[in-house]
Amino acid sequence: MSQLLLSLAICTFAAASSIDRRAVVTRYNPVRTNTSPDTPLQIGNGNFAFSAGIDGLQTFQPWSIMSTWGWKNDTLPPNRTLDDVLAYKGESWWNHDKLVQYNFNGVGDLQQWLISNPNRVNLGRVGLTFFDAKGAPVSVTAADIQNATQTLDLFTGIVSSTFSILGQPVAVRTSVHQTAGAVGVTVTSPLLVRRQLAVFLDFPWNDGSSKFSAPFVGSFASTNWTLHRTTLQRVTSISAEIVHSFNSLANTTFYTSVHGSAFKLSRAEGHQFLLRPTLPLPSFAVSVAFSLQPQSPPAVPLPPAVEASSRSGWANFWEKSGFVDVVTGSTDSRAEELQRRIILSRYLMRVNNAGDIPEQESGLVNNGWYGKFHLEMFYWHSAHWLLWSNDDFVRSSSPYARFLSSSIARAQVQQPWTAGARWGKMSDPSGRSAPGQINELLIWQQPHPLIFAEYMWRSTPTHAVLQEWRDVVFETAQWMADFAWWNETTGVFDLGPPMYPVSEDTPPNSTINTAFELSYWRIGLDMATRWMERLGETPPAKWSQVAANLAPLPTSNGLYAVYEGIEDTFWTDPAFINDHPALAGLFGWLPATPKLDISIATRTTEKVWTSWNLTSCWGWDFPLLAMSAARIGQPDRAVDWLLHPLFQFDDAGMPLGGTRVPTPYFPGSGALLTAIAFMAKGWDDGPQTNAPGFPAVGWNVRTEGIRMAL
Ligand SMILES: *[C@@H]1O[C@H](CO)[C@@H](O)[C@H](O)[C@H]1NC(C)=O
Ligand SMILES: *[C@@H]1O[C@H](CO)[C@@H](O)[C@H](O)[C@H]1NC(C)=O
Ligand SMILES: *[C@@H]1O[C@H](CO)[C@@H](O)[C@H](O)[C@H]1NC(C)=O
Ligand SMILES: *[C@@H]1O[C@H](CO)[C@@H](O)[C@H](O)[C@H]1NC(C)=O
Ligand SMILES: *[C@@H]1O[C@H](CO)[C@@H](O)[C@H](O)[C@H]1NC(C)=O
Ligand SMILES: *[C@@H]1O[C@H](CO)[C@@H](O)[C@H](O)[C@H]1NC(C)=O
Ligand SMILES: *[C@@H]1O[C@H](CO)[C@@H](O)[C@H](O)[C@H]1NC(C)=O
Ligand SMILES: *[C@@H]1O[C@H](CO)[C@@H](O)[C@H](O)[C@H]1NC(C)=O
């Protein structure tokens, strides 16, 4: 018996280590031979990322260096004080029988300042400067280089770039430290021996004057010293510090420390500095480290240490997390591209969405919505981590414990009759939600923490986890129960009005009982109830009363409808079929509830597939559609949705934004990984077969460390 158990254990172990992960990962190493006008090759650690052009640096294109901690406030609007801004008040709207003061339609300049501040800073730029044989600077563009080849090794996080310029070869290696905001750069070229090559650093101005800054962030031409200042200090023969201060509300300052081969650092023009190697050696290596506090520049890890950190950090990530191999042994021609998307999405989410705060939709590549993040999007950005055994990334970035007290305060100010925590939407690192009609009236971010808690519990079913999430679960559910409004006429609890559903395109004053949100409310309140029971606490009776008596899901012509009272013609009305197709999420993304009629849900899903305006869909809509197909038993279709022509990932795996938003749009990557785990490992109540979301023929799907979805 024990012999049998032992051999079973050995078998399990052997099976668990059977995917040659390194081979699968490196098969998709991006290789470039030309500049991309749209996306960089990126290296980073979740809190800090360096975006590289074809040279491995930022010589020819001003790609960004961005972080989770680099933020600043612009100066206040003319003739305004901070008190004016903090006293901003919006408009009062009726919420049933109560007037609610929402944060929108207030005084324009104050409102705009609150929307665009704080905004995220582009920390700097690192590139190469060339000189002619006589030592005069040569102005170069990407057109002046030949034979460029560049590889991003996904398994080590190292970019190796080679090219020729001025008739000589140049090789550049770039990597990012896994626990510090430091990029390591090693340049090798005969041009160094001839003293024709130096490294430059530059510091841009950027502010909240535009909602999107893509593909590049900030202005390098701004030499206006009233706006920002740079100073050089603590210079030694191998290290130095540059201080960059923005003339902002609080004069925000960032520090850049350089450490490496012997160099002389001098100001070039504007906010640009030149590092000229002291010795005519064929190789020059420096680390450039960015921080909010002064560092000791000589203590900054040298390029070999940065590289070693990158190697071990990435090996650890690839070896210790969940893994899905759909390509080895598959004959379906779609498997190759799907695997490429999986690997590159895993890499890019680790670089961009695994830091200390939730990430903006364009991650650390460029700025969207001024660099702020959206709490409804935290689901797509982070739920996949829990399905792929990367719980730590949710622990570090989770906004829920951090924003709990401010979310309770928000509920009390906005809807004094409600208890609990009202989660905000477009947020800054302090949790303040920006003014705006959608920002105030969207509600589908509210149940998210309950799903996160539930997945945490499924991975670690301990009392400690129950306690850790207890207050978040409790306060979230309290608000949900109180937001549901008892309608005496109909004898049910209504959601809204006013509100916005997932598709942000319905009239808020008449949007009531949206199908998706009703189902999500039921699922969430049931989960919260079970959470309290697991803790041995009595859940408030109202939670189960509300869950049991929420309005029925609205229907029209035998199908589910977006909201109660919507015109029957909505399926052909451009006003309602051009935004997120959440109706297909009722049975797919979301599990069934006891109130869901699965045959209606299935027909509704198929109707969405044929009637929604797919040319208007973008990003996570396609993984959402894939999960709907998988759950209704059409796995072939599920795969097709993940490879839909309007759901594109470029050669570096960057998810294209499409017509609505700039590239990259990372909710598409997170949702893809959610759908892959769902299809590969299955879901509660799903078919008990391997990879139930993949077709039975043509696919060999292997998973390691992937968890079953709800
Ligand atoms: C921006 O200003 C607000 C209001 O004073 C403050 O709470 C916040 O911490 C500031 N953020 C930064 C990054 O300076
Ligand atoms: C600011 O106040 C000054 C002095 O009252 C006035 O001249 C100026 O027009 C005001 N500027 C704006 C933008 O309101
Ligand atoms: C919603 O109703 C409020 C009054 O409660 C009104 O001021 C506002 O204009 C209405 N909004 C829309 C979009 O109709
Ligand atoms: C580019 O590569 C080709 C083929 O390897 C070689 O013949 C040529 O000399 C290279 N050009 C430069 C400028 O290095
Ligand atoms: C520099 O920026 C300040 C603040 O925006 C502005 O008032 C000033 O006119 C600018 N100076 C120049 C020379 O552009
Ligand atoms: C910001 O720095 C400028 C220039 O050094 C100075 O004139 C100004 O008073 C400072 N403002 C604050 C808020 O510290
Ligand atoms: C009660 O529900 C009905 C049907 O949804 C709706 O028309 C009515 O406005 C609701 N009553 C109130 C006071 O909101
Ligand atoms: C469908 O979406 C496309 C792209 O956004 C748009 O141009 C077109 O007008 C939409 N069609 C309808 C019927 O809404």
Automatic annotation (TrEMBL):
SUPFAM superfamilies, sorted: Six-hairpin glycosidases
InterPro entries: 6-hairpin_glycosidase_sf (IPR008928), 6hp_glycosidase-like_sf (IPR012341)
UniProt keyword Glycosyltransferase, yes or no: no
Keyword Transmembrane helix annotated: no
Keywords: Signal
Domain of life: Eukaryota
Signal peptide: 1-16
GO molecular function: catalytic activity
GO BP terms: carbohydrate metabolic process
Name of protein: Six-hairpin glycosidase
Natural source organism: Exidia glandulosa HHB12029
